[in-house]
Amino acid sequence: MAASVETPAVRKRLPPEQRRAQLLETALEVFARRGFGRAGHADIAEAAGVAVSTVFVYFKTREALVEAVLEEIGRFYLDLAVRIHQQPKSCREILVEHRAAYHDSLESHPHHARLALDWSTALREELWPRYVEFTDRLVENHVRTIRRGQAEGDVPATVDPETSARMLIASAQMTAQQRLAGADPAMVDRMAALFIDAALGRAGGGEAP
Predict the structure, then answer these.
(1) What distance lies between CA 40 and its chain's CA centroid?
(2) 0.70 exceeded by the pTM?
(3) Do residues 196 and 96 lie in contact, with contact meaning Cβ atoms separated by under 8 Å?
(4) Interatomic CA distance for residues 56 and 6, integer angstroms
(5) What is the pLDDT of residues 3-32, one digit of tens each?
(6) Rounded to an integer, what distance in angstroms lies between the CA atom of residue 209 and that of residue 199?
């Protein structure tokens, strides 16, 4: 009886939009593992099981690849912010919900979350200006919510909305790092509540969300 011959696996052909989405998802995983400064086309091709030339078809240069990764991180977190901040809830309720959703993303979208934290400390010329732009758009969402809270009488008029917004974003990075380091979630939530209340000028705040 003749020995059976294994047929090589046929690589599935995907429509261009699906292939690009697959490669971008793989790029997020590879960049989260290797860092912005080390990952490249070859790493993504290996992880995705495609030829290096295929990655170059969709991302012509390494700069274009990094740009696509940053754009996806920004899109994800800005969409999250807009969705939560447009709700007809009190200022504090929105800020607590936003913080909780950000913490949840550490598990639901771990590559996005880790890369966002890495991006926040990447002072290299090619990364930092985009991070400042991304942060400014997050600040705009927070400022609108805080100003609405002031108009509704929930937030003191003495609170500076932009300063408070930047404090909230910076503290979110700190509490996310605590969660990633394995800190007790209840303790992190209490810490987050303290930051939110301090940003809103609530004396002696810190009640549980």
Answers:
(1) 21
(2) yes
(3) yes
(4) 31
(5) 444 434 445 678 889 999 999 999 999 999
(6) 15
